[in-house]
Amino acid sequence: MRRRLLLLALIAVALSGQSTRKSGIHAEDMDLTCKPCTDFWRYANGGWLDKNPIPPNRSSWGAFSVLTEANRERMRTILDASAKAESGSGNQRKMGDFYTSCLNTAAIDKLGLEPVRADLDRIAAIQSKQDLVAALITFQATPRPSSGNSQVVGLFRLTASRDPKNPSRYVAGIAERDGAGRPPSSVFSLPDRDYYLKQDPRSREVRNAFIEHAARVLQLAGASETDASAQAKSILAFETAYAPAVMTIADRRDPEKTYHLMDVNTVAQLAPDFDWAKLLQTSGVPETTPILVTEPAMLRSFNTLVRDTPLETWKTWLRWRTLQLASPYLSKPFFDEDFRFEQTTLSGVREPLPRWETCANVVDIQLSDALGQAYAAKYFPAESKQRMLRLVENLRAAMKEEIERAAWMTPATKQSALKKLAAIEIQVGYPDRWKDYGPIATDRGRFYENARRAWRFAQNYTLAKIGKPSDRIDWAMTVTAVNAYSSAVESKVVFPAGILQPPFFDPDADEAANYAAIGAVIGHEMGHQFDDSGSKFDDTGRLRNWWTEEDRRNFETRAACVAGQFDAIDVGSGQHHNGRQVLGEAMGDLGGLETAYRAWKKSLAGKPAPELDGYTGDQRFFIAYAHVWGTQMRAEAERLLLASNNHPIARWRANATLMNMPEFQVAFHCKPQDPMTRSAGQRCTIW
């Protein structure tokens, strides 16, 4: 009850527009020995970072991490109660069964390989290309559990896709990964296609470590040391042959490059050695359904592998992928080996999370609406939506003024942009409809089976949308997430309950801190509707050019400025972001902060912000923004993020963004030669 009252109070403060007259500045969290115009991220966060090293079971640690940890404790309260209520029913019973089955490591260890035995037997029985195709079709219908999205044992993913050029309908989709807004799930064993192709020392090191890892897993499943080593090398060679045909993360950001709508016969021309009609039939999808193929070159390469690769190589790879995806759900030797490579080698994590935390994460992902509904009822009452929505509308009004003042846009494009801005649907806290998990059977002694049933339910739920009118109700993110997202094809922005707490809503801070924190998040997500990808969708969510040629050129120049800035930043050891890869997030940060700043200034109604604790309003605004990005990462995790993620490193989400804000430079009296200063000719801006 105390937590609930605290949450209500802090949201009321953040959204009411009434200052508590507290600065929200915590001097002990800052490094005042660091000059703000040299490294503002360090200046704002250095004290906290020094006192809070990365825990051994984390790859990074910061403001997001602390709030995520608090949310997991709240989830634990709900799940512990569900686990004790053995006589319960509905979602509570399913959560309790699922959570208990995950905690029951003795039962998991006793089962050994039994949970995947039927899959391994199916693979062993493959004797012909027809058998191979039949197995690949079967595996599409039974996605495997994974730490994020479900994944399939195969080289593509069949799913439902909102048609970007007709967003009122769902069509079938064939892609390399599930890009539903959650962490992407690839058909590759390594994080991204570039891991197979780059020849730098770290990439070669990871590939060598992967061979050792795959060999260990195969040995655990019964292969001899000699056979396992040879098989692991063939697995890497198999995936390396496929990698060049798959698009880069940067290229995949362009929705026009991934739009290829065709019928099943045209798909069959791309890959004639696979039975596409049978795949649709087995999946319950009519053959007349249009199919959105994101990467035609990938399907041509897939066909080559089906046609020319020996069956034994295919069978080796299928066994491996079955074991790899199942390992986090299997007995301790498999779990430990999976952790050693996936977490330690790739991200630098030293030890696993406590088991309860692992299990809470699993339930949150796989019964997301069940846990989300319980979480929202306990920690985010419905009336809080309205408070948040008022702040959102303040940001929308500020963005409207920015668009209207944009001297580089013609009136026709401005009107289209304003229409798009007005059409964005804002969803706060939790979705308006919860999924019914009734069809999922749960068993307290069968963890892997519970997870697989949950993913089969999710697959069926998704494929059932094909051919039906679309709506904007389902979420691609959990209610508990310390995150938010924007969907241009749905013309909506989502703010889960999990993020609507300090430091984003800070009960001790005045308006400056709240606008800089949650306000910048709101501006960021609305800004995604106008980033390098979102700007190609109109107010209905349709992929359509609504720009004049001149305006689009001007926009591309502004986007290129942001990409070029991130290309040039040395993040350490000579490493750099890929500017095009992180462009959408970097534009969201810059545009979001610009909008939040103007919305905060507008909220002052012409009055000066008070000076509190020795800091002006502008100084407090920028400190609060940088504090949100007070996250440090392990070197391995940083390399992983640079290689396979479209988000910049947290330090540069603060510093690089602020370098473009002349208001920041004025607030802290930065000189032209200071590292945090960019000249007027260098500065990037969105509007």
Quickly list its features:
3-stranded mixed beta sheet; Neutral endopeptidase, domain 2; alpha+beta; Collagenase (Catalytic Domain); 28 helices; disordered N terminus; single chain; 4-stranded mixed beta sheet; 687 residues
Task: Tell me about this structure.
There is one protein chain. By secondary structure, the chain is of the alpha+beta class. Among the domains are: 225 residues, Collagenase (Catalytic Domain); 206 residues, Neutral endopeptidase, domain 2 (Orthogonal Bundle). It has 28 helices and 13 strands. The protein has a four-stranded mixed β-sheet with strand order 2-3-7-6. It has a three-stranded mixed β-sheet with strand order 8-10-9, with helices on one face. Strands 1-13 form a two-stranded antiparallel ribbon. The two termini are 44 Å apart.
